[in-house]
């Protein structure tokens, strides 16, 4: 009797619509998530250097679009801090007019990368780089809040208000989890400043909030090669950072729900959502780890209904309550973002006990990734640097696991047993591992415990045969596995 296992799938939208109980759960989850989205969307708009309306409408469009075309049911995508950090230097140096073409091009990059199957390459990003990415993101978000605390025009009262917001975010979950703690902090701090007429910087000071739906906007900057040269690095950063954070979040939800999502569809969906957001004047976005956790774990959502509801709820709250939102103190949002940093940072990764047990190479990868991100303000650059360093560390490690053992057979024959993975790093010194002058006329190189991965190894084996030939010995390479036989037969004798 044979048994087969299948991966569970998430409930469908139709199943939610047919079940009043399930539909109610999904809608309420979306509303709660929207309440948690609003303060962060406004905060990330400030980080990116754009009006709060930009981040809010971007969150609306991305959430609604991704609920239709995305790959991971119940995952929340919106205007994100990681993307805001990528585009902030562009907006600061060249103006907000370059925002739309940059996000459009970033979305196109995501479409292309999705169709090329680049999402599958996520498995080649080591854990040390993933941890460093999260930690660097937390550090950059933290440094982006410093002007709200140490700016020239920041009154001292901002400090106790920020501290109160942090205390509420930490303390409220001990009393109730029915309402998101960040929302409680924003409401309480706002109420204090309004009731007691405390003069502090507010969201309204950052830009006008919307009173109606945005119109369809286009690209206003010159469509030239110079424009393309300027925006392409930022657009590629938006695409890579957005995909990395989205796919990492999707993996988290897959684990929580014990279901499987489509990385290809998620990549494609993020591209479509970003392009749609840009043409409505919004900034770029990706999956939101914090809001996704609220939606999936806290509220129990499992379908796209919750994601769609979150986007619509943000729109309704923004349009109806825009006057109230304008009075939110920046101190409240700073408290929210500081706690986002605390929640995002992987504190376990820097514990002394963890660092003592971690291989030195892994620690070096994490440190280099974080340093590059902080130095360049570019998460994509840091991840690329981390992957390169991790590859070098891996290559150096496996380069020393190749073993060559000499076994005399008789006075006319000697056998060498080669063990390990042979590629450019590990096969470089293969030529030096044989006793050419001492060996008899017949040499057998047994490859039963080895695998040939590249042309460098074939060239090394050719070099071994040539050296033995100079000493009058013939070489027989035996027991190559199927893949090694094919590569060796194709390249041997043609690389000299």
Largest sheet: 4 strands, mixed
Oligomer: single chain
Please identify the structural class as seen in this structure. Answer: alpha/beta
Provide the residue-averaged pLDDT. 85
Shape descriptor reads elongated
Biggest sheet: strand arrangement: 3-4-5-6
Helix content: 55-70%
Spans of at least 5 consecutive residues whose pLDDT stays below 50 are 1-7
Radius of gyration: 28 Å
How are helices and strands ordered from N to C? HHHEHHHHHHHHEHHHHHHHEEEHEH
The strand count comes to: 6
- Tell me the fraction of residues in β-strands, as a range: 5-15%
Organism: Curtobacterium aetherium
Protein name: SulP family inorganic anion transporter
Write a structural description.
- With 496 residues, this protein is of the alpha/beta class.
- Helices cover 63% and strands 8% of the residues.
- The protein has helices spanning 13-18, 20-48, 52-69, 81-94, 99-115, 127-150, 158-175, 181-195, 203-206, 225-257, 263-279, 289-298, 304-320, 322-326, 330-344, 352-357, 360-376, 379-398, 455-470, 482-491, and strands at residues 77-79, 285-287, 403-410, 413-422, 442-452, 474-478.
- Helix 6 runs antiparallel to helix 15 (330-344), helix 8 packs antiparallel against helix 15 (330-344) and helix 10 packs across helix 11.
- The longest helix has 33 residues, at 225-257.
- It comes from Curtobacterium aetherium.
- This is SulP family inorganic anion transporter.
What's the short story on this structure?
This protein has 496 residues and is α/β, with parallel strands linked by helices.
Output the keywords.
alpha/beta; 20 helices; two-stranded antiparallel ribbon; disordered N terminus; SulP family inorganic anion transporter; four-stranded mixed β-sheet; single chain; elongated; 496 residues
């Amino acid at each position: 009797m044979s048994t087969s296992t299948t991966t569970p799938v998430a409930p469908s939208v139709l199943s939610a619509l047919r079940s009043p109980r399930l539909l109610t759960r999904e809608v309420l989850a979306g509303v709660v998530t929207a309440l948690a989205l609003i303060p962060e969307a406004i905060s990330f708009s400030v980080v990116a250097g754009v009006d709060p309306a930009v981040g809010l409408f971007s969150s609306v469009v991305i959430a609604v679009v991704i609920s239709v075309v995305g790959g991971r049911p119940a995952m929340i995508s919106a205007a994100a801090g990681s993307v805001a950090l990528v585009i902030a230097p562009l907006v600061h140096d060249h103006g907000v007019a370059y925002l739309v073409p940059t996000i459009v091009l970033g979305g196109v990059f995501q479409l292309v990368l999705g169709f090329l199957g680049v999402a599958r390459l996520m498995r080649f990003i080591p854990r040390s780089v993933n941890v460093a990415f999260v930690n660097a993101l937390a550090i950059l978000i933290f440094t982006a809040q410093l002007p709200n605390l140490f700016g020239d025009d920041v009154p001292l009262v901002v400090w106790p208000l920020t501290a109160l917001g942090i205390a509420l975010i930490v303390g409220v979950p001990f009393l109730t989890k029915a309402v998101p703690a960040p929302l409680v902090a924003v409401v309480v701090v706002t109420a204090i400043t309004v009731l007691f007429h405390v003069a502090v910087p507010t969201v309204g000071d950052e830009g006008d909030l919307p009173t109606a739906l945005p119109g369809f906007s286009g690209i206003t900057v010159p469509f030239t090669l110079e424009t393309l040269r300027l925006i392409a690095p930022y657009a590629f950063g938006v695409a890579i950072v957005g995909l990395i954070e989205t796919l990492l979040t999707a993996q988290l939800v897959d684990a929580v729900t014990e279901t499987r999502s489509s990385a290809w569809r998620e990549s494609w969906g993020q591209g479509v959502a970003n392009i749609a957001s840009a043409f409505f004047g919004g900034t770029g976005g990706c999956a939101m780890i914090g809001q996704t956790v609220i939606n999936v774990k806290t509220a129990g959502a499992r379908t796209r209904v919750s994601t769609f509801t979150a986007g619509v709820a943000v729109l309704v709250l923004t349009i109806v309550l825009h006057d109230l939102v304008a009075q939110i103190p920046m101190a409240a949002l700073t408290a929210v973002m500081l706690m986002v940093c605390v929640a995002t940072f992987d504190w376990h990764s820097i514990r002394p006990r963890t660092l003592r047990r971690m291989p030195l190479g892994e620690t070096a990868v994490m440190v280099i990734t974080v340093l590059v991100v902080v130095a360049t303000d570019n998460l994509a650059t840091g991840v690329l640097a981390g992957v390169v360093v991790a590859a070098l560390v891996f290559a150096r490690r496996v380069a020393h696991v190749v073993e060559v053992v000499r076994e005399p057979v008789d006075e006319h024959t000697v056998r060498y047993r080669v063990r390990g993975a042979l590629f450019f790093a590990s096969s470089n010194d293969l030529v030096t591992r044989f006793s050419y002058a001492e060996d008899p006329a017949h040499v057998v190189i047994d490859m039963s415990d080895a695998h040939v991965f590249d042309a460098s190894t074939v060239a090394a084996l050719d070099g071994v045969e040539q050296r033995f030939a100079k000493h009058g010995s013939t070489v027989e390479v035996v027991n190559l596995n199927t893949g090694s036989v094919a590569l060796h037969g194709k390249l041997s004798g043609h690389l000299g």
